[in-house]
């Protein structure tokens, strides 16, 4: 059995329901690294370097694409359901192409 995908969860503004997203993702079997509200893309990148997640999920968005430009897979979300759905889609095993 493979280890669950590690997801770094962060927000750039208060009011985002990060705890609710984290709980839902854990219920789906993902390993969630809860970074909380961070002030900049540089802080998110620093946390990603330390934690080595498979994916970074940020709310409300990746400012200027700075996180993705650094080579980190990132999904952005605005609502709890959108966050859960996008992370699940990005972390599900990909099927092999047919030959």
Automatic annotation (TrEMBL):
InterPro entries: Cobalamin-bd_sf. One of its GO terms (molecular function) is metal ion binding. This is B12-binding domain-containing protein. It comes from Amycolatopsis albispora.
